[in-house]
Amino acid sequence: MAEAEPPRTFRALLLDYGGVMTTSMGRAFAAFALEAGVDPERFRDVVEEAYGGTDENGVVPRLERGEIGVAEFEGWLAERLSPGAAQPIVAEGLRGRIFAGLEADPAMTAAVVRARAAGIRTGLLSNSWGDSGYERSTFGDLFDAVVISAEVGLRKPDPGIFLLAAERVGAPPGECVFVDDLLHNAEGARAVGMEGIVHRSAEFTIPRLEGLFGVPLSAPG
Asked: Looking at residue 138, what is its pLDDT?
């Protein structure tokens, strides 16, 4: 009879930004469509076109790898969203308006603070629409490492970006837990040996993390 494998020991926590450390991306997109007078279904279709399905040469994949600039992307997006909109969509600053509805999730932020205080290495691993826009000072002591796709020329779920994040956080992939709101990104993390969690809410994710790391991460209640 085969011996049971010993339980894995995890010592690093990697997290996506939009939709994990913040409120839902879908809600932000819906709020933008309403504010801009764009039909939500059209907005969804244009975003799907931008991602290009499995085509890594789509506008968003190239943007997330830093191969094209934000201004070029905003022009492309405004041109496609303007037909049928209440008024022509202004390209300049469009990325910021799309993400204006994102707000930090205080429960997830507090959980990361507690994890780091417990000695767990923490890292941010995010695909970014262009230059990061991430002011490192806003994170304070939240993360030991920050890996942004456009800054490193790799994007999730490319195996290379997960391996880079593990290296920067100072732990082998097998000792890392990665949290993302998209299944294919969690699967990408699993493919390199990480534990991948698909995030739906802090109420779901935090207990999962407590079980994996064996430390309390929820606010006392």
From this structure: 62
Greatest extent of the chain over all pairs of C-alpha atoms, in Å: 70
Token pair recorded at residue 68:
């094209």
Mean pLDDT of all residues belonging to the chain: 91
**Model's pTM, two decimal places?**
0.91
Asked whether the bond before 157 is cis by omega within 30 degrees of 0, the reply is yes
Are the C-beta atoms of 13 and 189 separated by less than 8 Å? no
Q: Which two tokens stand for residue 12?
A: 């690093």
Q: What is the pLDDT of residue 140?
A: 67
Torsion of CA 59, 61, 66, 69, to 10 degrees: 20
d(CA 93, CA 148): 20
Question: Backbone dihedral region of 42: left (phi > 0), alpha (psi from -120 to 50 degrees) or beta?
Answer: alpha
d(C-alpha 127, C-alpha 56), whole Å: 14
Nearest to 200 by CA among 7, 19, 6, 5: 19
Between these two residues, 101 and 123, which has the higher pLDDT value? 123
- Residue 10's identity, in one-letter code, is F
Q: Tell me which H or E stretch contains 71.
A: helix 70-81
* Gap between the Cα atoms of 149 and 136, Å rounded: 15
Are the C-beta atoms of residues 97 and 134 closer than 8 Å to each other?
Answer: no
Asked if 92 and 74 touch (Cβ cutoff 8 Å), the reply is: yes
Could you give the CA distance from residue 183 to residue 153 in angstroms, rounded to a whole number?
A: 22
